[in-house]
Design goal:
This protein is of the alpha/beta class and 373 residues long. It is built from 13 helices and 13 strands. Strand 8, helix 6 and strand 9 form a beta-alpha-beta unit.
């Protein structure tokens, strides 16, 4: 007998409801911590015609080239979903921005499906399965294969054809976002990230703490291999420089692309980061998206007080000194620095940074002056 850590009964129930669904959806955030699990999500999605959403992902959970990958936002799908499967997620959607179908049946497979250490967690869960997701999904796929009929396969095929159309529309939308380069001092983050995507190899690793620019990173930097994305899984701002060094230590043959907002960069002890990188031969490529402050502070203030004094006066106590030269911190430890204001200079600056990291074994830091706070 294969050990799955869970009885077949709840998995049978999930399989039956999944096969009966007209619009099933799977939402995950960190199932890819086990690098074998993304292949299962892809297989399950294609087997039954179920889209997969990476909601606030902490790792790569499914290849972005998968025919069932439908992006990072579950909110547009929720009104239509009649069966939802949450797998390893703390935040499947943003409640303020969602209108879920009240008749949806939600199942949740997670090592902690009741979120014991989260004081308030009010997402629906009609069936909660506490289990290792890799083991549970492996068994679920076996059960579904035994239950599949020609009618199920036909419905799955029709949904997959619908996904193909959605994905093509999304590709065009994302490409159009990157076509606008921006202006001097106002580089479009989408364009910047699309250019970064061009220099990454399959085994390179993205460590991102871009915060308010995370949507551009997620849409334009198209990772496909498990274990090549690392996001914030806990703690607070400033985790990413040290995390990037740890990834480089574990994956010495990969280039580590470290993305950071200017606000979060301050918190990561950067002066120590690049000296450690030099002392221990751990070169990383950092990109600082310099927008002049903490955008998250501004946006959260507006959401809580949309008609408040801060908005009226455009004062959010969130601006940073625009003359600070972040790249000098890296240069002080023998690294390569770039300060890019003109979007036309982005490709060449990226190329110089990649050369420093890959060929010269030095860290590189590129400051990109993006759309302002």
């Amino acid at each position: 007998l294969r050990f799955t850590g869970v009885d077949d009964a709840p998995l049978m129930q999930i399989a039956d409801r999944l096969l009966a669904a007209e619009y099933p959806l799977l939402i995950t955030s960190f199932a890819g911590r086990n690098i074998k699990t993304p292949a299962l999500l892809d297989e399950l999605g294609q087997l039954v015609g179920m889209g997969v959403i990476e909601s606030y992902p902490q790792v790569l959970n499914i290849s972005k080239a998968s025919p069932v990958f439908l992006g990072n936002l579950s909110e547009p799908h929720l009104p239509k979903v009649d069966f939802g499967l949450m797998v390893d997620t703390d935040l499947p959607w943003m409640p303020k921005e969602a209108d879920p179908n009240p008749n949806t049946f939600w199942a949740h497979i997670d090592i902690d499906p009741i979120k014991n250490d989260i004081p308030m967690w009010g997402f629906p869960g009609h069936l909660k399965v506490q289990a290792d997701s890799y083991l549970a999904l492996s068994r679920l796929i076996e059960i579904i294969k035994d239950k599949l009929t020609d009618a199920h396969r036909a419905r799955a095929k029709a949904r997959l054809e619908g996904f193909a159309k959605q994905r093509q529309e999304a590709v065009v939308f994302i490409q159009n976002l990157a076509k606008d380069k921006g202006a001097p001092g106002l580089i479009n983050p989408g364009y910047l990230c699309a250019e970064l995507n061009k220099v990454l190899r399959e085994d390179d690793v993205l460590v991102s703490e871009a915060v308010m620019n995370e949507p551009s990173v997620g849409m334009q930097i198209l990772r496909t291999k498990p274990g090549t994305v690392l996001g914030l899984g806990g703690g607070g701002l400033g985790y990413s420089p040290g995390a990037a060094l740890g990834v480089k230590l574990a994956r010495p043959d990969a280039m580590v692309l470290h993305m950071s907002g200017d606000g979060s960069f301050y918190f990561g002890n950067p002066s120590s980061t690049y000296e450690v990188a030099r002392e221990h031969n751990l070169p990383i490529f950092t990109v600082v998206l310099e927008n002049g402050g903490w955008s998250a502070v501004k946006e959260c203030t507006i959401k809580v007080h949309p008609d408040g004094v801060s908005r009226d006066t455009d004062e959010f106590q969130a601006r940073l000194n625009p003359s600070y030269q972040f790249q000098k911190v890296c240069e002080a430890a023998g690294g390569h620095g770039e300060d890019v204001i003109n979007p036309d200079d982005v490709p060449a600056a990226i190329a110089r940074c990649v050369k420093a990291v890959r060929e010269e074994g030095r860290s590189a830091l590129l400051v990109a002056h993006v759309k302002r706070l």
